[in-house]
Structure formats: C-alpha cells, structure tokens
Amino acid sequence: MAPRFLAQQRLVCLVCTLAFATSALAVAAEVSAKKKQVQQKATQFLKLSQSSDGSWTSPNIPGITGLAVYSLLESGVSADDETVARGLTFLKSLQHDDGGIYYAKSTHRNYETSISLLAFAAANKDGRHDDLIRKAEKFLRGLQWDEDEEQKPEDPGYGGAGYGSHQRPDLSNTTFLIEALKSAGVAADDPAMQKALTFVSRCQNLESEHNNTPFAAKVNDGGFYYTPAAGGTSQAGLTATGGLRSYASMTYAGLKSMIYAGVKKDDPRVKAALAWIQKFYSLNENPGMGLQGLFYYYQTFAKSLSVLEIDELEDADGQKHNWRADLVEKLASTQKPNGSWVNEADRWYEGDPNLVTAYALLALAHCE
C-alpha cells in the first residue's frame, strides 16, 4: 500500500505543479499582450506629438526630448525610425565643445547630458555615436563633486552630481549620472562610480560604515531621501526629531544606483532598502510623496526591481505581488484614449504628457 500511496502523492504533486506552471504562463502571456497594447498606443502618441524641429514640448528643455527618444528606443523602435532619428539629430545639435548636451542657458546640464547620453547609447548598436558618447561621458565626469571642486571624501556632497557648480548635489541627479556612465560602458569599479556610490550611501537612512552623516541615526529605516548636502533635504519633509524622511522614488533610485556601482545583493545597504520597499509597496502613489513624482517613481520602480532580478515581491503583510503585472495593469487603467498619461499632481513637469508618457514607456520596457 505504501509504495502505491507514495506514487499517487507524487502524481498529485506533479499535476499541481503543472497546473501552477500553466496558470503562471497564462498570466505572463496576458500581461505581455496588455503591455504591448499599451506600449503601441503610447509610442504612437509620442510619434505624433513630436515638434517639426525634432524636439518634444520645448527646444529649451532637451531633457524631455532625450527621455522621449530613449523611451522609444527602449520600447523597440529602431534607431533609424524617422521620429527617433529626428530626435537624435536635434539632441546632437546641442552638444557643446565641452562635450555636454544641453540648452545653452540651462541649469540642468547634468540631467540633460545624462539623459541624452542614455538615448545615444541605446541607439549606438553600430558605433555611430561613439565619439559623441565619449565626449559626453568626459563632461559628466567633470560635473561630479570631487577634488576638482575642492570637496573632500568626508564632505556630505562628495561624489554626487547636482544642477550646477554652485548647487549642492542630490540623489536624483546622481542616479542619472550613474545610469548614464554605465550606459557608456564605465565599469562599476571606476573611480567616478565609486565616488558616486559614496554619495548615494550617504542618502540612505541607515547607520553604517558607509554613512557618517548626522541624519542616518534619526530615522534609520533603510529608505533614501534627496540629499545630505548643504544641511540636508528630503522632498518628503522632516521627522519630529529632525530626520530626513525616506520616500519611494529616491529609495528605488538609490537601490538601483548601488547595484550599478557594484554593491552585492547581500550587502546590508541593499537588504535595508529592500525591507523598506517591502513595507511600503504601492503603485497607487509614490510612497512618502503621494501623487507627486508618480511617473518618475514608476520608471525607477521598474528599473530597480528588474536589476535586482525580482519577479515576485512579498510585502510587509506577507502578500506576494507580481510587480510587472501590477504595473502593467495600473498603467493600462490610467492611460488616456490618445495613448498618453498626465499626473494630476503637476510637480516636476509631470503635468506634461510627453514627459510622463516617456516615463511610463521606460517603466513598461522593464516588464518583460
């Protein structure tokens, strides 16, 4: 009886396993189909909203054009596509002798160059943009706050990037710098990446050997905030003890940046950030900020979980989430009939459908 019973049990287990696998495949196929439908509508919207000069929204804000081009390329549109080619030509016309790609009067030169570099790197399958990328990379290295700006390694702004030479560094600028350098082929152990990692580590609310700022101990929840430099700032505000509140978009950005800079998944910094993410898992808001910066949050959410190779995230209540399915469903349900999105909390340009549609496409590109 025992052998027969064991055989029956094994058969039941096999049937259950096959049923689960079949169900999982069906869910994945459904998510993929919905994602493609949403992507196609969004891609079409961006193609139709491009200006005749190759820019989106305004030629004086090339960061939006860079994001639009990059999002189209990441969505499978060819570098030789007419819309993409016009966008790249426009961006190329903004490269200065110093290698930077920016509007002449801009105070966002790090953002604009970093985002443009991402677009050109994504379009550089045959090496056609090698020279432009090399010059842009050199320019970005020059913007980093280090010894050239008389910053010492113990200074809280050391290694970061900001809006300009007289503006303190911040995590948002720095995470785009890191991603751009990575796209240009810069290795994780490169001095520029390691300097940036020093700054990123100091943006985390975590007491550790990597964080000697006075802010970490005041919150110590593993999340990230905007900057420890120039007295410290969190867009989510202060705690009662004067700590800088963690919020989701910066926590995902900090986590992703650490991985790009070579930090391992078993590092206490990564584990602490992941625990914060599990505690505040949501796609209805940018946790800590409500609807502000929601679409920026979506793209860094997707990039980070993809980089960590996480398929299913368990939240603090023990509920497991297929984050890709959740994200596709959220974006599908909020997409407008013309294929765009708009954030009703119009901060950081998120009332602009071109910008937030590019963000949404970048998020969807990681829902494979």
Description:
The protein is mainly alpha-helical and 368 residues long. 52% of the residues lie in helices and 2% in strands. The chain contains 13 helices and four strands. The strands form two sheets. It has a two-stranded antiparallel sheet with strand order 1-2. A two-stranded antiparallel sheet has the order 3-4. The protein is globular and about 80 Å long.
Uncertain spans, ≥5 residues at pLDDT below 50? none
Roughly how many Å apart are the termini? 47 Å
Q: How are strands sequenced across the largest beta sheet?
A: 1-2
Tally of individual helices: 13
Largest sheet descriptor: 2 strands, antiparallel
Q: How many strand elements?
A: 4
List keywords for this structure.
368 residues, mainly alpha, two-stranded antiparallel sheet, 4 strands, 52% helix
What would you say about this model in short?
By secondary structure, the chain is mostly helical.
SSE diagram, text form:
Blueprint: H1 2-49, H2 62-74, H3 82-92, H4 109-122, H5 130-143, E1 161-162, E2 169-170, H6 171-183, H7 191-202, H8 216-219, H9 248-260, H10 268-279, H11 294-307, E3 313-314, E4 320-321, H12 323-334, H13 353-364
Antiparallel strand pairs: 1-2, 3-4
